[in-house]
Amino acid sequence: MHADPPMASHTRLVPNDRESENPVLLQRTARALVATVGLVIGLASALALFVNAPRIGHTDAFLAQEPATDLIDPKWVDETVGMDETPADCTELPAFQFEEVKYSNLGNKGPDSGKGEGYVLVARDLLGVGNIERLGRRVFLTVNSTGNRYIPAVAKDNKMNGRFASVNLIKSDELAFKMSFFDAKMRVLTMPQVAISFFDLDAGKKFTVKEAVEVGGFAEKFVADPNYLKITQLPNGRTRFEATQEGVGEDNPKNFQHLSTLQRKRTVTLLFKNVSQFTGRMVTGNGPRRGYRRFDFVMMPSVKCARREDVPDDKFDKFPPFPADDLLYAPPMQTVAHEGGYPQIFNKWVKKKYDKVRAGDVIATVKVNGEIREIKSKSNGTISATQDLKPGDRVDFKLATMNIAVVQEEVLPALKTEFKTVEAGKCKKGQYLTSYKVDAGQIITRDSVIATTANVLGEHKQEIKAPQGGLINAIQPLKDGQPCQKVQDLNLITIGKFPPVKPRAGEVGCCKGQEDKILKEWKKDVGDTCSPGEVVAIVTDGNGNDEELKCETEGFITAKQPISVGQKLNEDTLGDGGHLVSVGQKIRELDQYKPEIGVNCASGKFKKWLVEVGEEVKFEQKIIDMDPVPIEAPANGFVTQRQEGLQAGKATQDVAFGEICLMIGPSLNEVTLRSGQVPVEAVVLPDKTLKEWQKNVGDKVSVGDPVAMVNTKDGGTEKVTAPKDGIVTAKSPIKPGDRMDLACDTDTSSTDTCTLASIGDSMPPLLVLAGGSAVPVPDWGESNLRWVEYQVEVGQSVETGDTIAVMVDSSGNNVTADAPHAGTVQKILQSMHYDMYLDKVLQTDAIATIGQLPPLDSKPDAGESLVVAPENQNETFETYLVDVGDTVKKGDPVATISYVKNDTSEVSTQTESIVKKILVDEGEQVTEGQVVAQVVEVETKKAEGNPTQKSEVVNLLVEVGDEVKMGDPLLTVEKKPGQEQEKVLSPKDGVVTKLADVGAIVGRDGDPPAAVVETGSKVPDNGKITDITAEKNGTVKILKEEGDRVDPEQAIIEVIGNEKVYENLTAPSDGKVMARQENLTNGTPAVQQQSDPALLEIGKPKAPEAGFNQVPVDAPEDAIFKSWCVHKGDWVEKGDCIATIAKPQTDSRRLGGRRLEAVMVEENVTAPKKGWVDKESSLVAGQKIKDNQVGSAIAVIDFGPPWWLLLLGFLLALCCMMCCLFKIMQKSPPPPFVPDEEDEVMRPLKKRLDDGPRRGLRLDFQKEGQEIHTVWAQFRPLGIHHGYKAPLVANDFTINSYSKDALGVKHGEVLVAINGDSVRGNENWDEVSGKLNNHLAQFPQWPLEIEFRKELDGPPCIVTFVERPIGIEFFRRAPVQVEKVHENTPATKKGVATGWYITKIGDKNVQNNHDFEQVMVWLKEGVQPLDPAKQPE
After folding, report:
1. CB-based contacts of 1188, cutoff 8 Å, min separation 6
2. CA triplet 22, 26, 30: central angle to 5 degrees?
3. pLDDT category, 216, cuts 50, 70, 90?
4. SS3 1273
5. pLDDT tens, 1302-1361?
6. Rounded to whole angstroms, how far apart are CA atoms 1265 and 30?
7. Is pLDDT of 739 > 90?
8. How far is CA 745 from the centre of its chain?
9. For site-directed labelling of 179, which of 244, 726, 738, 824 has its Cα 20 to 30 A away?
10. Which helix (H) or strand (E) holds 535?
11. What are 46-91's pLDDT values in tens digits?
12. By the 8 A CB rule, do 471 and 496 touch?
């Protein structure tokens, strides 16, 4: 009996007889003919497309409506129709999911009229097929109408219908369309592969309407049943798919991932390759011209890969799970949580969507072979998406890549570009910060390197350079190794204006008064000599007028404003002083900071520098070339400063103050102690390094607690301990492995101490900046509050009442600290962390500071203006009356503010009176006419008491306000010192209202009276009572008390008016609302919480600008626009009418003796060149052009590429064709000898499989409806995922599957016999598996083949393993790289080395896979079946 081969018996391995006749000649001839015809057709098509294709290379090109063009598609269209087979792996097919409609105006039928013709959809790449870096990218699909017959039934229904894109037509209509692909920047995108599926192609009742789709240019087509869709090849190269069955409700799909049998039969999927656009038609037939027909489509291979109702859920693992079911995530700011292993049963959720998690937190648990496994978060962040999993769900059946949740990492908010600051450190997506090169507060020049970045592998390093000079205003707190995408806008740094050059004592400033001029050239640098009349710099006014700026005094340039050539001289670049340079008798001395070591240059004459600032130097390295002896570095470190301007051949002291010419310091600064803090010190010896930190800032410590561990030179370790109880308030920025001298001010040649950290009793308080306010900890009674987290980041804009931070009280209830007003978060306590007791760590109750809102553009462009709130500090914002994009006229109301009208009125009486009663309280609100007080009218009489002659007052016997009787003594006086004193008596009954001071001289004519007594100052018992009323509404302020006497018109009470007045702010000019201060809320002070008073910006759009190979069409700005002669996308010849305008023209005739009159004359604006109309202004008929835009261009003509470029392309194509023909017709050389790369393990195994009669265990497999497929097993195990179920079905294979790779077992085949014994229909797993294992136990292990590469792009090295463990440890990153190879393991015996990359595991290529966890799952699956290594006896 002959043994069957391990492959299917129907596989043909040899050619037929006709193919055997002269095969070399036939093949060459065929290849030459095919290549020649293909190249000629391709060249002709390319030229035709290049010449006639619409201009789609511009940002707004996808809007243009263009004429219909039937493209002749290649004849390599696949004619296969059947779809009974399920693909081997749908993950190799492209999958894009529509997310939104950008706008819909197909055929200019609306509903989004005015935005250009087209239907624009945004899709997301779910798989990244062919390039994993494309995963998650956005693709824009634009659908344009290319004909003139399209009439929508309901235009507003051209939108997303669930996850389908929908287009509707009336019956008996057609849509000639062009579909084009663009990237996120609207650049033409060539898609390597893309699938389009059209659904629900059916007919109307009695076949009055038959839906059809005509498309060309696809590589493959997939139809489930040709009886349901008639397929016709059309003469123009397109293929028509026409409905043959009447429609029913059940054929309308709801989910493109799950199709019923009927829905699948009425769907067609077209697979395109290397396509940027294609054309076609949607047709509804020839029935009555009324009714509604809808076409739904997606960018998915639904016919090929959607799940089917004819397959039970528990058997669906026969087919690959559709990948769109998995969660979409976008590395590096989104990570996934998953767990490998089969079979996997979902257990429970521990966290839910929108929960915040930390790295290592458990998100969910699953069961694998009965064992509970935890699925943990890989990063800090928020759970943004979760799969719809319930306890008991079979995860490995339901999901494609086992991703059960997505964690969105925390993002740093964008740095605010405050007044006169700019973004300076834009980083690219996919890059990671390597290091910052500058610090906040540092002055830099244009093109200075401010940061460096690299990709995830540390390659493709890039330098970020400053776009202008200035002061580093702010730096993102991004750490080395973190992705740039952790920053909201990718900007790392902002730069502000320069600080001014300030001349010191003995120096003079130079060159003021050059504002608004541009620096053209520097002629002097710091350290250069400068004599009167010598040129320091050259500036220009931008119009070709240059001016030389000259020195006015003798000396050296001691300081220079770091302005780059091309920058404008203004307050931003010159600062407040306005000086360009300062000039002194000598160069300034260097400022030495504590950690720095000064290098003395006094001994000798300077020759040249041997090192640059920032360069690392070693002890005794030559750093300055001096005469007679070079100067060497006194210590290891970095050059932090050097004395610029030293002159060759001169001594340092001749040209500079001081003897220090260079500074060497550590790379990092020492910890700075604040009041009340103590240092954590460590003894420093040469070669000591930091091992690890034991405590972080904010941690509580007790005396003796370890703060850090230090490695010593002899390999030992030392503890650095806390000297007191308290809180770690700061620590050095050195990292494990760094030398200790990088953080310490010490000479490494001797023993010294170093401050590694500081301990204090509480956190240092926050400083509230001008214009800001503190966010305090809420007053929560006796409860001790514990810290949870901040809800905001520095730089984030907040509104009144937004949550700033969350705490919990002693009962576990959440307590929040909220923003007191709208503004920008200025500062937070970076050292706060979870579970801190606030009363233990805070010095003040401030936990954050809120600053003012960022300003709008304070320097509007031409044609723009600002709507400014009155700066009275009293106005309150109420509401906006317009939105961004609205058109306004001058004087139109745009916003409403309010203020309190503080008019003050006095409540008084008309007669002399005494206040009898006050009827209101201080601060009370009163209304007009309300009685607020009562008075009693009195008649007042005064009498004076004086001595008989000149005297001095020596004693007062009563007080003002006392009641007296006539004759009562009031005070005593004496004429001369030592003489007898005299008493001054009261002249009548009454109240004392005035007394002279002790020492006053009284009794002479003209002297003030010694005393005054009045009658009527007391409320009479029977006096007339008068009510006093308020004259207006307001708040009461009491000026007099009950019993006080008041004169006529004297105020008793003030009423402060508090009427709220509303006022509209109006547009200062015609235009559109370009921007507005969005963070203002009702009740917010209109000016106080902003850094400038501008609320809105009103402007006009700019005239269209011409690009490459384009020319503008200009019109007089004073002309009145009438109408367009052409539309966007139209072809025009030179001189063709573009638009009609009317402009004034003076009539040359004199009418009746009157003055010459201006009349409006219409004329055409013509095309200056032939080409396509690419852009048009948004002009309003009847209005002047200057009232609608800024600039004279009203349109742009694209005249296409020049003729010489077409000729060059033709010649290049011709050369390529000739080279291809030469290569094809060239005689093939004999194949070179290729050495066998397989090692001694695989070679004999494959020989035994291929040669000789079949031996081993006979296994019979059969697929339903097919013949028995017999294979002969000689190794174990088979490598089939069985799920512990019988009969054994090859639904899925393991990595390195013996049955799949060597025996040729096919997907879906069922094991029906083992060694001739039938197991067909046997559902007893234990019996089937026992019989199989008993037979296989006698055979050797099937080896695992792993492909390694020393470099990712280097040659492969294939190694086989038959034992486990293989003895390799890996770096935790992908692509996977060997970190360590253990001794005496299979890996060392095979020669595997550290640093090698794993690029293939069995048949699974992992070279470009960046998911480390997934690769590890595959590797474990491949290694697990190997035999355990034998232990040495």
Report:
1. 1100, 1101, 1121, 1177, 1178, 1179, 1180
2. 175
3. very high
4. strand
5. 888 888 899 999 988 888 888 888 888 888 888 888 888 889 899 999 888 888 898 998
6. 39
7. no
8. 40
9. 244
10. strand 535-540
11. 444 444 433 333 333 333 333 333 322 332 233 333 333 443 356 6
12. yes
Spatial distance between the Cα atoms of 949 and 373, rounded to a whole number of angstroms:
113
Whole-angstrom distance, CA of residue 1408 vs CA of residue 1378: 16
Rounded to 10 deg, the angle between the 23-52 and 1203-1225 helix axes is 170
918: phi then psi, degrees, rounded to nearest 5 = -100, 125
Question: Within 10 A of 941 (CB to CB), how many other CB atoms are there?
Answer: 12
The share of the chain scoring above pLDDT 70, in percent, equals 77
Q: Which residue has the higher pLDDT, 1360 or 1?
A: 1360
* Among 119, 237, 107, 80, CA closest to 176: 107
CA distance 664 to 656: 19
pLDDT attached to residue 1323? 87
Burial 229-264 (b: 16+ CB within 10 A, else e): beeeeeeeebbbbbbbbebeeebbbeebbebbebbb
Residue 653 CA to residue 650 CA, distance in Å, equals 9
Beta carbons within 8 Å of 462's beta carbon, 6+ residues apart: 428, 431, 452, 453, 454
Q: Dihedral (C-alpha) 924, 929, 930, 935: value to the nearest 10 degrees?
A: 110
User: What is the structure's pLDDT at 513?
Assistant: 66
Give the integer Cα–Cα distance in Å for 1271 and 13.
Answer: 18
- Rounded distance, CA 537 to CA 549, Å? 5
The CA distance from 47 to 1207, in Å, is 10
Average pLDDT value for residue range 789-800: 82
How far, in Å, CA of 504 to CA of 651, rounded? 23
The one-letter code for the residue type at 582 is S
What global pTM score does this model have? 0.32
Residue type, 67: P
> Which residues lie below 8 Å from residue 499, measured CB to CB, with a gap of 6+?
443, 471, 575
CA atoms lying within 13 Å on the CB side of residue 674: 12
Q: Give 1376-1423 as a DSSP string.
A: -BEEEE-TTSHHHHTT--TT-EEEEETTEE-TT---HHHHHHHHHHHH
Task: Out of 297-311, 692-706, 1171-1185, 1232-1246, pick the least confident.
Answer: 1232-1246
120/63 Cα distance (integer angstroms): 9
Cβ-based neighbour number of residue 622 at 10 Å = 14
| 3-class SS letters over 297-309 | EEECCHHHHCEEC
541 Cβ contact partners less than 8 Å away, ≥ 6 residues apart: 516, 517, 518, 547
How far apart CA 130 and CA 457 sit, in angstroms, is 20
Query: Among candidates 526, 593, 523, which has minimal Cα distance to 555?
Result: 526
Report CA 1325 to chain centroid distance, whole Å: 54
How confident is the model over 1034-1053, as pLDDT tens digits?
Answer: 888 888 888 787 878 888 88
| pLDDT recorded at residue 417 | 67
Residue recorded with tokens 């550290």? 1394
Whole-number Å distance between alpha carbons of 665 and 745: 8
Residue 558 tokens, joined:
């001691």
Closest CA to 197 of 267, 98, 258: 267
Measured between alpha carbons, how far is 356 from 49 in angstroms, rounded to an integer? 53
What per-residue confidence (pLDDT) applies to 1370? 86
Q: How many CB atoms lie within 10 A of CB 450?
A: 22
Q: What stretch of H or E contains 700? A: strand 700-701
Q: What is the DSSP string of 721-734?
A: E-SSSEEEEEE---
- 1272 in Cβ contact with 1253 (< 8 Å): no
Number of H helices, E strands in the chain: 15, 102
